[in-house]
Amino acid sequence: MASGRADDSPLTGIARLRDTLRRLYHGRTKSAVRFQLAVVVIDLAIIGFFIATPVLSETPSFLWIDYSVAALVAADMIARLLASTDMLRLLRQPTSWVDIFILATLLFPQALANLGFLRILRLWSLAHSRALLTPLEQRGLIKWREPIVAVVNLVTFLFIATGFIYTFFFIDGSGIEGYIDAFYFTVTTMTTTGFGDITLPGIAGKLTSIVTMIVGISLFVKLAQAVFRPAKVYFECPSCGLRRHEPDAVHCKACGYLLKIPDDGV
Fold this sequence. Notes:
mainly alpha; Helix Hairpins; Ion channel; transmembrane
């Protein structure tokens, strides 16, 4: 009888839950990959809400949606912690800091309203997580990881800059028209088109324009490099764990281990 009660103890239940979550978040089975794709789809829907937040913030149902998204983000964070073999290491990662900050803006939307545009960092967090990497590996598309990350970085900055410009320069009673103006200004500035029909006033506006141009050009260059420069294969070194190697590499450039990279480079 004692052993039966031990099997049903809360500790055993938690261990079983952690094992299930670990298989779902990090597994390679068909059910695990479907779960991971579902998580990515939900993340993209949440990111869509973040992009639309400046326009939706005045609607009556905004707080209900906001707190519902907060519950989803919190559930995902807790599940990932339980699925991790080293919780402290996971909490020290920048992606976890981003998620914690985003959760804070969702829980206190009024107090942190001016920082709401930073929620789009969730897109950057998604691009640097296993949630995106594992499906790519499953489908033999890991060589596209670097271009995808470069595109995500560019899009993330685009909407962060748009949100910042809208919040501090266009928000006063402008609604969706002001948000579109902010988006239009950001695109023309990042591409250095500079039509001049919309400008930001004062020294702060000029400094914002300068930063947007410099960072935007840098991200465009990074994207071009990721697409056109000779690709490196993704193959984890069994000795040191280095994942990126030259296509014709025989030895790992970090530790010298003899590599056996498959011909397809995946």
